[in-house]
Amino acid sequence: MLLNKKWSYISTKIFVILLDNNSGDIMKRFLGPIILAVITGFVMAQLVFSQYEKPQLQTVFGENEKVNIIQLGVYSSKENMQINTKDFAHYIYNKNNGMYYVYVGMTNENKNVIKLKEYYKQLGKDIYIKQINISNEKFLSILKQYDELLLKTEDKQTIKTIQSKVLKKYEELVK
Prior knowledge:
The chain is α+β, with helices and mostly antiparallel strands. 57% of the residues lie in helices and 18% in strands.
């Protein structure tokens, strides 16, 4: 309690001295260094904080989009896989538990799924449609463009070329 009264008395005296017209010189002496200290503190804080790099924010849970992938088959050996895929200019495969899963196409459009089923049926190939999650925005954008081209064509060579390019982009950007 005694300390609070003493502090109150001292702070009141300082305030009166600073505002007193007779002690304007004292106020000028205190005001300059206080302003200089605040500016110096601000500049030094900016200097210190600029030394630290801003953290790169990474999306932990990205926006996944389901994409239809066309599976040609599952093979027990790489040789069988290569024999059965010799008609395809480009394909991708995954090895899982000693089995080779072969994929020959990819689309995000339901109308293209129907078109591709018919295309592979005419080639005499049995296919399976699976869905996978892809979060690579660049690839999804490219896939959308290829899907638009695929919607507009009925030419078998163009379909084959589009699917080959999609798979190459998938390997380049996602896999």
